[in-house]
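Hi R.,

Here's the chain you asked about this morning:
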Amino acid sequence: MLELKGVTAHYGKSQVLQGVDLEVKDGEVVALLGRNGVGKTTTLRTIMRLTPPSGGDITFNGTRLAGVHAHHIASLGIGYVPQGRHIFARLTVLENLCIGLARPPAAAELEHVYGRFPVLRERMHQMGGTLSGGEQQQLAIARCLVMRPRLLLLDEPTEGIMPILVNTLRKEIKAINQAGMSILLVEQNVRTALELCTRVYFMERGRISFECAAAQAKSDPELIHRYLGVSHA
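And the predicted structure, written out as C-alpha cells:
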C-alpha cells in the first residue's frame, strides 16, 4: 500500500530524514516510534508533501507521489491527523467535518462518523474550540474519515488527552482498522502503540534503526529501553 525507499528531507540546510525505508501493507497498523526530534513527524509530513522530500521515493497503491501537490494527496486516499489536532476553533463541529470536501457530505457519510463518535452528533452545532481535548481529537479523526481514506496517518493521537479517555480512543482506532483502514501511527504512549500495531519501526537520527513485530517489542523490555529510554509497562 505505502512504501518509502531512501526518503530524505531537509529543513533549510539541515537534513532531518537520512534515508527512510518503511512499508505499510493493506490492513496493517504500523507504529513509528522513537525519541523526540528523530524525524517521526517529518516522515508523516513528507508523505503528505507538506515537507517536500529532497530524495528517495514514496509510492501509494502503485502511484509514485513525486510531483503530486500536497492538496491532491488526500484525494488519493490518505488521511492525515497532525499532532495538535489543528481543528478550526471558530467553526462548528459540522463545519469542521465539511472542510476539504468538494460537496456537502451526504447524510450516510455523516452517519458513518457520528456512529463512530456519537459525541460529535450531540455537539454538531458547537464551536470546535469549546470541545475538550479528547473530543477535539475525535473531531480531527472524523474529519479524515468522512473523506473515506484507505490509509490514515496519526501523529500523537493520545497527546494531551485525559488518561481516562485514552482507552476509549484506543478502542476507536482499533475499530477503524478492523473496518478495513490501514494506519501509520506515531505515538509516545508506548502501551497504546503496541496494543494497536502489528509491526514497529524504531527511528533514530532520521533513519529507521530496527523493525520488528509488535509481539517481539512487547516481550522485550530491553528493546524498548534501548530505542526509547522508557519501559512499556
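The chain has a mean pLDDT of 92.

Let me know if you need anything else.
M.
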